[in-house]
Amino acid sequence: MLISIVILSWNGLGLLKDCLPSVIRAAGAYGDECEVLLIDNGSSDGSVGYIMENFLSVKILSLGDNFSFTKAMNKGIGAAKGEVVISLNNDVIVEKNFIDPIVRHFCEDKDVFAVGAKMLFWDRKTLNFGRASGDFRWGFFRRVIGDSDSAVNSLYVSAGGMALDKDKFIKLGGFDEDYEVYWEDLDLCFRAWRRGWKTIYEPQSVVYHKVHATNIKKYGQRGIDRLSGENYSLFIIKNIHNMKLLIKHFIFLPVLFLLTALGGRLYFAVGLLYSIRRWPPFWQKRNREKNKVFLSDMEVLKISGR
Fold this sequence. Notes:
Elements: E1 3-9, H1 13-29, E2 34-40, H2 47-54, E3 59-62, H3 69-79, E4 84-89, E5 92-94, H4 99-108, E6 112-121, E7 127-129, E8 131-137, E9 140-146, E10 152-153, E11 161-165, H5 166-171, H6 184-194, E12 198-209, H7 215-239, H8 243-262, H9 266-276, H10 279-290, H11 297-304
Helix pairs in contact: 7-9, 7-10, 8-9
């Protein structure tokens, strides 16, 4: 099975010097054909020239502009030749044998959509992302990230270290580009679960993540917090179809605004307010999505948490 590793980079020369060699080693250790595709998002730091000179096996797709994460990754995954595509951030170092554990799930179960690696922080000890579960209480959607000793269902996996079935990805329409960045991976996997396609956490596949290394340059911490708050509410508008739960979200949204603003997350609260102007187009997405679902909100949360 041909595997594609897609890495998005924007002015990431220093990160690529640290991280790309580990990806090349892993691709070489994989027992089947594997392409490494770098998606350059309009870099001006000489990183494309560096890759062309030092990593001849790496293919490069130059977009010529600094697109959003979702739009650039849709272009990159669309250009990938593999049946299974591994999405990696450019600030991620991977273990040499990280490919086999995540790829085998696609061979064993045709209903698998995505498989996520165990993501540790740069200290190689602390868990950054693992097995995700979620619940909806008092109008609030809550994500819980934990760990597991063996492969297990997960509500979603991080786009910075996951493998996905390209054909299913295309059928889902790819990442929703209106998110730009943050909550796009949850949105994607949630929509897949609704169609009966599984997302799995595989702890035997390990990567190390230097968090926000690229996004902090592009958006700043305030921008990251604002986008997180905005997309949090938009995810609920689009994907929570149980009307009672949605009404609770509307009722308790002012409470969430106050809690986050007074709790030191002012720009997350600002993002919640920003989201209101974008509710109409996301409501239209919600109506279109309702015609394609197989599982209900609560069924997704229950099955993905088993």
